[in-house]
Structures are given as C-alpha cells and as structure tokens.
Amino acid sequence: MSVEPTLARSRARATIALLALAMLALGCALSGCAGGNDGASGTFTPRVKDTLTVATAQIPDPGFWYGTFAHPTGGFEYALAKALAERFELKRIKVVEVPFHELVRGHLGGADLALSDITITDERAEHLDFSTSYLQAPPAIVVHPGTQVADVKAAQGLHWAVQHDTTLREALETQIEPTTKPLVFERQSEKLAAFADGRANAMLLDLPIALAYARESPREFAVAAQLPSEAELGVALPSGSDNVEAVDSAIRGLKSEDEIDRLGERWLHANIEEGSAEDIPVLRTEE
Amino acid sequence: MTAALIEISSPKGAPYEFLVVFAVLLLGPVLFRRAGIPGIIGLLVGGYAIGPHGLSLIGAGNNTLPDLGQLGLLYLMFAAGVEIDLNLLMRYRRSAITFGLLTFILPFALGTLVGFALGWETLAALLLGSLLASHTLITYPAIKEAGLAADPAVATAVGSTVLTDTLALVVLAVVAGSVGGHKSSADVAVQIVVGMGVLTAFSLYVLPKLAGWAFRFLGTERSVRYVVAITAFLSAATVAELFGIEGIVGAFFAGLGMNRLVPNEGQLMDRIEFFGGAVFIPVFLVSVGLILNPSVMVRGETLGLAGLFILACLGGKQLAALISARLFAFSRAQSGLLFSLSAAQAAATLAATVIGFQLGLFSSAVVNAVLVLILVSVLASTLAGTRASARAAMPDGPRPLGMRVVVGVLDPDHALGALTIARRIARADGGVVHPLLVVPESAPFAPKPALQRLAEVVAAADVDGQVMTIVDRSVLHGALRVGRAQEATLVLVAEPGPEPAGGQRQTGESAQGDAAGGDGGRAPRPVASGVSSEREQAPAPPVALVRGNATRLGAVRVRLDDEELAPDSLAGEMARRVSGGAAQRLEQDHTDWAELLAPGDVTFVSSELGETLARLPGAGEGLVVSTVAEWLIREESAGDEDAPETPGDVRAV
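YS: structure for the whole thing
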C-alpha cells in the first residue's frame, strides 16, 4: 500500500475540515449568531423604546379608527397596530396625525409605520416601503340611498366628489370618466361634507370603508357598485426601513393565523377576504 | 386616419401574464442547462426576473401565479409520494430505515442547533432543522441511467426517502399547528395526532380503494384516470387542512397511498410526470422565484445564513452517509452514492420554506439563504453522483419479476384473468403490465374492434401499461419478440382454452398448438440454462401460459414440487405474488386437481415437459398457470434473425 495516496487523502480531509470551520466562523460572523438578536422572521426596532408609533390621516375613520389621536379606542387598523405591537413585544402604541398626501409622499411624521387605508402602488413604492397586503380594497361607488347606478353611463352622469392624491381619483378618471368635472378635496372629511350637503351625489371609497359607512349611517350612504380592481391596502414604512422584513413576516403570520379575518369580522363586520362583498355588483368598465 | 383606426394598448391581463410565465418555463431551463446549470435554477431565476424584484412584469398584487404555484406545490409533493419505490424500501428496509433515520436526525439536529445559535424562536429553529433533513432524489435519474439502480446503496437511499420526507412533513405539521400560540401544547398534540391518524387512514386505505374503483369503472379514458389522480391528492390535501395540517402533507400521503396503483412505467405515471414536469411544478418554482431578491441574497446576513445552512445540511448528510456505509459495509463509491442521493435539497425543502414564509416564521432573508443552499446542494450532489457513479461497480443480479410484464393476447375476451394475474405480479414490484394483442399472420382479422375490446378489458383489469399490437405467426412467438424488445421481466400468454364442442374460435388458431409453436406434443430436449443464439440477442424473459378466464380471482393453489417452490423458481414466485403468500399446496401426484377449479380459482402447475403442456386441462371454470420450458422458449426464439431488438414492428396503441 502506497503512503502517498493516504497522505493526500489526509490532507484533503484536513482541508475540507478547515474549510468547514472557516465557513462556520464566517457564517456566524455575518449572520450574528454570537449574541445577535436577528430573528428568523426579521427584527423590529422602534424609534421610541417600547413604543410602536403609528401614523394615520384621520380619526375617526368608520370601521378603521375610532376615538381620537390621543385616545384611539378601536377600529380595524387600530386593532392591527395592537396586534403588531404585541408581536414585536412593544408595550405602547402612539398615534400621530399626518395628512394623507404627506403620507403617500413618504413623510410619516417620525412614525415607525403608517396604517391609513393606503393602497399599494408602484408610484407610492418610490417613496415608501410596503408590507404584504392586509386587505383587498377595490373602489366602491357610494351614493345616497335610492340612487341607482346600473352601468357606467349612469355613473358618468353623477356629480362626483374625490380626494386629491388618492388611487380613487385615478380610478374615477380612468374607469368612470364623469361627464361633469368632479369636486377635488385635500381631505376625506371635506369630501364627505360635500356629499352630505348635496354638492356631490356620488363618491368613491375603498370598499371596506364604504361598507362601514353604509352600515353605520344607512340613511346617508349606500354602496351602489364596486369597480373591478386588484387594489390592496398595506402597511407603509419609511423607504429603506430595516423593519420591513419584520412587519412583512408579522402580516403574513397574522393572515395565516386568521387573525386578520377575526379583526375584519369584529370591526368591519364582514369577511374581508375574497368574496367579502358578493352582494355588491361589479360595474363593468373598459379599463 | 390609420392612427384613429388602430389602437394598440400596453399588454396586460391574464393572457399576457400567462405568456410571461410560459416564456420563463420555456427559456429558463433551456438557457441554464446550456450553461451547465440545473434547469431548476433557471426557473427560480426566471421567476425573479419577471417578479416584483426584477422587471415587475408580474406585480406584487398578482394572485394568479401564486395560486397556480400553490397547486404546483401540492402536485410536486404528490409526485414525490407516488414516485417513491416502496419495493426498494421493503427490500432494503434495514439499511433504508437506518440510513433514513440518520440522514434525517443529523441534519435536523444540526439545523435546529444553528437556529437556536442564531437566537431564533423554537418553532422557526425546528422548521429549519426539518427542511434541512429532507431530500429530493434529483441525481437518481442520472445514477439509474448509469445502471446503478439496483445497487444496494442506491436502493437504500431511495428507500430512505419515504422516511425522511414523512418525518420532515410531520415536523412541519407540528410547527404549523403550533404557530399562533392560541392552543396549549396538549391541544396541538391531540390535533396533530388525530389529524395525522385520519389523514393516514384516508390516504393509505380509503383513497386507494376509491381510486381503484374509479379506475375500473370510470377510467377507460386516459384523461379520466389523470383527473382521478388530481382529485385524489386534492381531496387528501383538503382532509389534511380540515385538521390544520398543511395541504402538502396530505398530497404527499396521497402519493404514497396511490403508489401501487400508479406503476412507475405506466401511462398514468407518464401523464403525471408530463404535466407535472411541463407545467405545474415549473410554475411552482417560478412562483418561488418571485420571492427571490438578489439585493437580499447578496447581503452579508443572507450569505452568512446560507453558509450555516449548507454546513448543517451537507455536513449532516455526509456524516449520515459515512456512518451508514460503515454499518452496512458499503464501499467508498457507495458512500458517495448515498451522499449524492440524499444531499440534494429541492421539493420538500422548498415546500417547507414557502410554508414557513407564509406563516411569518421566516423572513425573505431566510428564504433567499435557503435558495442558495438549494443551488449549492444540487451542484454538490450532482458532482458527487457523477464521481461515485464512475467508481461504483455495476450491481449484478436479476431485476424483480414483476418489473415489466408483457401479456400476449390472442382473444381479448379471454384476457381478463391473465391481465389480473399479471397486475398482481407487477404490483408487488411497483412494475407495469403491457398488454399485447397478437394478430395472427394467417387469419383474416380486423384488429381495430379487437383493440377496442382489449382496451376495455385492460381498464376492467385495472392495468395501466401501454397497449401494443403485433402481427406474428403465433401468440407465444409474438409475445416473446415483444418481451425481448421491451426488456420484459416476465411474459404471460393468455390462452383462451378449448371452446365447447361446435364452438367457433374467433381467431381461428389452436391455442395449444399456437403456444407450442404448432407442436404441442414435441419430445423434451435438454437445454443449457439461459437462452442465447449465435447472433447477439436480447435475453429471452421467462414465460408462462395462463389458460382460462375469470372476472375476479378466487382460491390460489400450487401443484409444484419442492424444487419448483424454491425462492428462485418462477412458478413458485408467481404463485406467492398472486396469492400474497397464501397459496394452498396440492400434492404433486394429485390427479384430480383440475376438478377443484371453481370459477376464478387459479392453479399453478409446472410444465417442464412439452407433453404436460399439451395435456393442460381446459380451464373453463378457472385459471391454470403453467411455466413454459426453456427449450420451448429457445425453439420459439431460434431463427429470429428478424427479431426486433427495438420494437420496430410493434405498434403502441
């Protein structure tokens, strides 16, 4: 038996062992296994210790936020914020008011994240990072009870109120194309006021919000139809935030545990997954 | 004016999205294989290219591709279960179970340790351990191609797959059931145990019976049989989800349950592999590619994770291979084969990773690190497999008897009994039965109606092989030629048996005379063992005659001497398989054995002598199976200069 092959084999084994050790050391160093705290699902680091700071544009917002900015008391997005805080083991939630048009331009007013019925779009993703979606939200046509909207032509003849810098304005202009110039407002409250005093007799709202309005004030609001759309709401974070992975994993986890369904049933009184509004007709548009 | 008439908008909608996906299915694997990289990587990278992190042709809000991918994931696990060779597991159960446990436990322990060392929560660490512990037989086709399928080490590794994948999926079920923390550990345990019990009973007992029934009564059309298979795994996945167990566990168990009904060389398996390989599984891989994010993948954190995963997985797999090789006295080359077959991570790993991601246990950094692990493991196992295959010695020894059975049929109306016997023999080896209609040269015969009738009988017998036809001078001669060309492990010849007096034979040939080459009473001649001719020919397979017919089999008896009942005897082996080892033995000098035959009863007799063959009783009431003497096979094969080495003049129907 020759000595050389045995020697060569021993060297090869030693090289493989050294390589493995080097990989182990490098792997540990890079992934931070020596006392690192980066979990498998990502780590959330709040701006203020033990506090989840959430930005939103409007409170109250039926179904989504109740109470005041200083003392929010409930609503789907508030409950979602609480579930996130619990998952990240944060003790408190602080809510800050930021106008919607500021939010979608990436200004979160120092908050960790924004929960404000924000539809995920490529344009907004240039200023914000989004989590995976937590709610489907196609545009819904809200009218006064008794108003019929049988088709797009009927919708075109209505007097519309719409909010500036929203996907709803884009949907109105591209899918419905009203014959009368719509009234455009900076804030949702102004849009609602125009609808209430008769300056407008139709407006677009995200479907879950529209359903919440119609349920809470059935004499003032009726949901006439929804538009075909894949619009979805997501948690918005400052662009480049290190917390995206953690928030994304948390939303996926809440969805897989059916927690989001439970919140929807409690605050929006509807199964908010697909088929949530089967009784609301879809208006066929060319877009 | 022209501009007003023609309006071209930017592409969008379902047709455009499907076009993009199918372009990736078409180009991804082809381009990567040309560069010497496995096609699976091409699909993953293609998914990235069209996804939200790439060209964004498929946006983040798109649900169609992920939904299709989910179906592909279930399909993948079903295919993994149905393709596993349960016979190899049974034949090499000691080494397969030992290696299966080692190659699961070592990477599982190392992976879990890595998870804990990284500070992960327990569920995530356990899931990491389990996904590193499974394996996919990516290198098996190449090793099989090298003629090493029967190597004990290869059989051990293949057999161990059912154990590793089942254990990995059980861990996944426990982890998925525990996520959320709404239930106590005891509740989760009860839920999983009851769920797995119901799922096992449904998949392994109820489903095969239902599917077998559907194949027999609904499955004369190929498409119907395929849809039955799809329905089967979807129903098992649904049952699993009723108990909070991931659907992929149900799909895998459905595959195991349907394993015997879907022989690896059968038409149904061919269809399952075709649609799976062409559409469903690639779509799943493309949907996984949507998560792939190079900016995350090249991060130090991701690469660090990948390095640790690779060490834990490949280190554990290598250790298991070395220990098993020592325990079972395998050579170094065989140890390399064990490693090569067990190291590749793909199906179950990807499935568990995707589930971990959906559950929110894993971030995209972990998913991307696992994708790096998959790439490295596939490359490492391919290299190791090539090297070990070159060094390993070719295994000797015969192929299992039921691997590929050709049943020569002259008259389809008398073929059901022979096909049923053939199916039982083949099923024991996970083999396939190929029915062959032999059209006599001499008889005026229209094969189309006979072929249609044979197809009906084949469906009634629950046989899944390729129906073929050949024009030949005799049914034995035709069956032998096709048997040699198809490398059959057994040829059965369906004998109609004598018709009642005055009856007309449809095919116009004497069965006995036909089987014996027209000379049933020929005197025996001593022959050397094995069949050969001056010209190099494919070896002739063993042959048996099945006389009589039956819609279902009854009592099985053997009228064989001790030598013929020896483990290596053809007649004894056939009798054991058909009866499940419970054949009643008749004395060799039992003269009235034919009178015992009731409808459906089968008696195995020996016929080393042509004289005995000629005196086989008419089995109008039952079935008689007789081996054919080697000299007769040789006689039939002699002078076959025109014998098809490939099925040249055999027509597959």
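YS: worth flagging: Chain B touches chain A through 41 residues (CB under 8 Å).
IM: good catch. Also Residues 499-535, 643-653 of chain B have pLDDT under 50 and may be disordered.
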